[in-house]
Every structure is written in C-alpha cells, then in structure tokens.
Amino acid sequence: MELNTIIASLNDAQREAVSAPKNSMLVLAGAGSGKTRVLVHRIAWLIKVEGAFPGNILSVTFTNKAAAEMRGRVELLLGMPTGGMWIGTFHGLTHRFLRRHAAEAKLPGTFQILDSDDQYRLIRRLMKNMGVDEARCPPRQVQWFINEQKDEGLRAANIDAGMDPFRRQLLKVYAEYEATCQRSGLVDFAELLLRSFELLRDNPALLEEYQARFRYILVDEFQDTNAIQYAWLRLLSQGRENMFVVGDDDQSIYGWRGARVENIHSFQKDNPAHKVVRLEQNYRSTGNILGAANSLIANNQGRMGKELWTEDSEGEKISLYNAFNEQDEAHFVVERIRKWSESGNSRKDAAILYRSNAQSRLFEERLMAAAIPYRVYGGQRFFDRAEIKNGLAYLRMIANRNDDTSFERIVNTPTRGIGNRTVDLIRAEAQSASSSLWEAAISIINRKQLPARASNALNAFLALINGLGGESKDKALFEKVRIVVEKSGLIEHYKKEKGEKGEARIENLQELASAAKQFSWEENEEELDELSSFLAHAALEAGEGQADEYDDCVQLMTLHSAKGLEFKLVFVVGLEEGLFPGERSITEPGRLEEERRLCYVGMTRAMEKLYLTYAESRRLYGRETYPKASRFLREIPVEHIEEVRMRATVSRPVSVTSSVSQREAEYQLGQRVKHLKFGEGVVLQQEGEGDSAQIQINFHSVGIKTLVAGYAKLEKL
Question: Is 662 designated active site?
C-alpha cells in the first residue's frame, strides 16, 4: 500500500496525527473533525508504514457500535481482516483478557457475566437473606454504590466506613456481594475492569508480557474514561509512552457517571514526551453554527483550547424563538418540522434535543396530533415509562379499587414489606372467591390469615389508597395527580435511586401533574369523568407505539443521547435558567461548565439549520415558573443569531350579535379575562379567526384551557 493511499485524503492536521512518530500523542479532536478517520488511518499507517504486527495493536473505544465501525473501516482500508488486533470496548477487551487468564484471576473457566438487571436481582436477594430493610437501604442505591467503588478501584475491604451506620450497611452488602460472586463464578461489568487491573498489577510477569504485546495503544473518546479505565491503560503503557489518545475536553459530558475530563491533563503529566495535535476543521456544520459554538464554549475555564472552522459557507443564522409557554414552544417546533418535511426533506434528519426526559411529553403530543411519526431515541415514550405507569396505577386504584392489574403493580411499590407469599395468598383468595384482589386482601385481613407484620403492611397499603381517594375527592384533576405523586411515596422511593436516572424519574412524575393540568377534558363525554378520561388518554398514548428505528421519523432525545450523532435540522429546546443549565448546576462551577459543554455538544449536532428556543413561562414538573432565558444564549454573539418573532397580539373576533367594538375586543398577550365557569385567567395565544378561533387561557383554578371564541363569553378585566 502506498503512503499516498493512507494520507492523501486527510487534511494537514489529520495527516500530522496519523504519520507522527511512535511516541505518546494527544489528539484534541473537535466535533465533526474526523476523529474516527484519524484512528482508522493511524492503524493502517502503523501496519503498512511502521511495519507493526497486527497483534501488537490495542484499540479501545466505548460502544460496540463504535468498535464494529472501526473494525469495518480498518478492514476496508487495509484490505485484510482485523482478527489479530485487539479492537473493542473496555468491557469487551477485558473480558477477552480474563477468559485467557481465568485461573490466574481466580475465576472458573466458565465464569458468567452479570448484566445490570441480573446484578440488581442478586443484590436484592442477598439483602433479603441478610435481613436488610429495602425501604431504608434501596437495592438500586446499593448497586450504584458497589459499581461506583469498583470504578474507583476500591474493594469493600479497602474502604473505611467511619461512624456512618448507613455506609457500614452498604459495605456489609458489598462484602457479601463480592463473596457470593467469587463463590458462584460471577463477574459484573465493573468487575471486568477491576479484576483485569488487579491481575496485571499483582503479576509482574504477566504485566510485562502484555506490555510487550501491546506496543501500540489507541484510545477513542478519551475524555470519557473513568478512574479504573485510565489506571488499566496506564499500567499497560507504563514507561513506554506508546498511547495514542483521541478526545475532546469540550465534549466531556458524563461526569455524573464517573468520567473524568481531568484524565486528559493527567495524561500530559504522565507522558512528558507527548505531542499534541488539534483537529479543528469541521466537516459537519455551517460557519454560523461553529462560530456560535466556539463563543459559547470559550466561557469555560482551563480548556485545552480549540477553534472549530469550516471551508463551507456561513449558512443560515441560528434561529432563536422566544415562546409564550411550553405549549407554544412545542407548537412552533412541530410546525417548523412539518413545513421542512413538506419541502421534500426526510423527517429522520430532524432532531429535537432537550435537557430532561420529562420535556418530551408535549412534543410527543404535538407530533401525534400533526400525524408526524417520531421516535424517542434511547428511551421510552412519556406514558410508557415505569415511574409514570406506577403513578397512573395509583390513580387507577383511586378510580377503581377492583383494578387487579394496578393492584399488583403498586401493592409493594414502593417496597412496604408485602412479599410474594402475601401476594400469592391474595391471588388464591381472589380466585377462590371470584373476587377482585382488593376484596380478597380485605377478606384475608379480616380473617387474620397473615402474620401480624404482613397483615399490618397490607392494611397500611389499603389505608393509603383509601386515604388518597378521600383526600383527592372533588378535587380538580391536576390536584388529584399532585396528591398521588406527593403522598404515594413514589418521590421518596426514586430519590433513593442515585444519579441522573433517579432524578429523571422524579422529574417525570412531577411532569405527570403538568400533563393533568393541561389535559383538555371534553365535558360532553358524559360516560367518563375527568379522571377516567385522562387515564384513557394515557393508555391510548402509551399503546400508540412509536415509529421503528428505521422508519422516516423525527428523532427526540436528551442532549446526552445526542453525542456522536448529526442531523440536518436541530432544535435545542428549553434554554432557560433552572432548566438548562439546571438549578443545581448554577451554583457549582464544575457542574455549570459541564452543562455548557452539553449545550456545545447539542449545537454542534446541527449540520445545516439550528433552532434554539426558550419560554417566558413554563409548567414543568408540576409547577408554573417564569424563568429567565439561559445564560448560554447571552454567550452567543448576536451576529450568529436571528430572532424569530410571532404575532404580538391576540385578537378575539366580535360576533354579529356583540355590541362590543372591535377596539374593545382586542386582547394583548397576558390580558386578564374572566370566564363564567373557570373564573379568572390570562390569555396565552390564539389559533384561527372568527367565531371558530381557539383561544388558549391559563385559568388560576383549573390551569390551561383552549376555548372556542364564539362560545367563550369572556369578560375582559
């Protein structure tokens, strides 16, 4: 293979990185700058120019998809299979290593890997055997604690519990879990890394063998490595300075799951002879998008420093839309997507990016109403999420005590000491008496068929449902939902699930109250009360089913999920203080900088057109707020932005029989009005004209309602 074949298609910076001497190197690869291309061509260079033996190459990345893409591209470029090379994920490669050295690692040759669900079930079983109360020490929190310690390279025996009784309990479970896994030949994901590191660290001969084998170590997405991953890499490269790492400190957005952007700085200290190459030419986005992103990220301190640029045109300016509220925001976004797709563009090239999963609900509803197919990338639709199903199950039990499906779902959620034996007894009683589970539970308690502890727990559940039903009786729908969300115990239950996942579940539950407040109940549907109508609406939406992965559909996803992807049309929504950046991030410089990097990642997903939106008022997580526009918007120079302005007033047409003049009938946005039934409210927006126009009003008593102008009989205040 001629040198020209390997480097001819590369730009100057890429060529410099690919053809560099065999010393340690840090390639700072900006968004859309061709980092995978550099890694692939570097491997080809090592084999064809430097004469490297394929078996001497170790190339590590984070996802199976990325590893498969790298193997495929290397094979295509070299015209040979990659079988001799070690190309894969951290977990895949350490698993391969442990299979080869199971005996030295004190593992059976047939050791089994525990996935996340299996690990959770094992921890829960051990806790039950140890008599640990799940309500006080949730299994999810224990699982998170164990994995966190392993990611830091810590065994239970290495950790000092101090005087904290809760931490002592966590360590007892961790120690028992370790002993059980060792005895049963089980290895979880975090253990793959930790066990591999320990085996090399404690066996000098084996370490020397693998240091000699892996003369060339290449690492993708280096900014996402955690403590144990970097420690493993350092061990393999110790004293050799043979690591070729590619990363971007500006795209480090996974600190919440252990990733350490500091590893880039540590790499430079640990490899004093290293060279730095910056990949700054972007092949994805227009000049305006890159200029805005560069200015935004420049506000972070301690950066390695990069300035993305493109040879392509400046393109359209970034469109900034100031919505009246979250419904107006969703309406605007979906309308722009509709017009864009009607112009011959593929829907799959459009993406809506948000900070919190809870924000997806309104966009889902608007897209369905507009008959535009969509897919929630890497997640579930709002009403399909487990925590939402749990909240709805409580509401269903309030509406109908004989709902057996809901009874089974929440009888021990949150955990309240009602075990499988008790539930089995209730099922048997219900079957025998041809009754509902609720009636069977009452019967069992009355006949004293359960031990005192189980009977008290079951009785407490029945009392909770009756109490929620009594407290929410005659309340507005959104009040019923708020009472259930706050007093069912679900919020406290998910608070114990540490990390972003637990926070997202809580936000989604709080958003359920917003969904209820914005729910439009058709009162002429006399066969259903408002709660039943809302529950039917939720069931129908959950059962609708989102588009398949390969359908031509709009992509909805969190900003974290968007990393590594690109779309022609991108909407980054909800750019408000307290939402993005989040409330807790504002007072913590480190977290605020990660939020800014997240915004930078979202903006650089856009290839041709980028929209940024924020709302003047937002009902989210069950509460109404009037947020300020995000500071991130103020950090973008005005020359890169154009404001999209909608109508400044909302008019209510005058009916023929009205004696009110046209001038008197005009309503300003924010105009206070009064309705005979709903009381006082504030005008938000209007769609259509004449008597058939629909006016959206936020009423103090019942929330947002959309009324028909000709029948509303509104009084201006």
Answer: no
State the Cα–Cα distance between residues 381 and 544, nearest whole angstrom: 10
Which among 14, 15, 16, 35 is annotated as catalytic?
Answer: 35
Residues 210 and 265 grouped into a single domain: yes
Domain span at residue 433 reads: 384-533
For residue 306, being part of any structural domain is answered with: no
Domains: count for the chain: 5
Cβ-based burial of 443 (10 A; exposed 0-12, middle 13-18, buried ≥19): middle
> What confidence score (pLDDT) does residue 560 get?
93
**Rounded mean pLDDT, 479-498:** 88
Instruction: Check whether the bond before 108 is cis (ω within 30° of 0).
Output: no
> Which of 61, 251, 518, 555 is labelled catalytic?
251
Catalytic, 169? Answer no
Q: Which of 42, 347, 381, 605 is catalytic?
A: 605
Query: Among this protein's residues, is 527 annotated catalytic?
Result: no
220 catalytic per annotation: yes
pLDDT value of position 548: 60
Residue 128 known to be catalytic: no
Whether this prediction's pTM lies above 0.70 is answered by yes
Q: Which of 188-192, 240-244, 670-674 has the lowest mean pLDDT?
A: 670-674
Mean pLDDT of 271-291: 95
Q: Is 36 a catalytic residue?
A: yes
Q: What order do you get walking across the sheet with 703-708 strand by strand?
A: 703-708, 694-699, 679-687, 672-675, 715-716
The verdict on 352 and 501 lying in the same domain is no
Per-residue confidence (pLDDT) for residue 294, from 0 to 100: 97
